[in-house]
Design brief:
75% helix; mainly alpha
């Protein structure tokens, strides 16, 4: 039961990050109630990654693409494997 709940938790986070990426391509974005919820739920994950990327040689203020969702998805996958290995 706990393993299934953890799998759902990580699945929902993955979906929210994908939805946020899609919302960044359309005009709705943060202005809609749905967009505001998605941004509020994903920003605590993406903001520290974006901040770390800005300080790395790979990032910086002139970076045209935001790679934080890709890195977040990889880190979430790794965290899921680590957490579930304890059960």
């Amino acid at each position: 039961m706990l393993i299934e709940a953890l799998n759902w938790f990580f699945y929902i986070l993955h979906v929210l990050i994908f939805v946020r990426v899609i919302l960044s391509w359309v005009r709705i974005g943060r202005n809609s109630p749905f967009g505001a919820i998605v941004f509020a739920l994903t920003e605590p994950i993406l903001s520290p990654i974006r901040h770390a990327l800005s300080k790395s040689p790979l990032g910086g203020p002139g970076m045209m693409l935001d790679f934080s969702p890709i890195i977040a998805l990889l880190l979430l996958q790794a965290a899921q494997m680590v957490v579930l290995s304890f059960f």
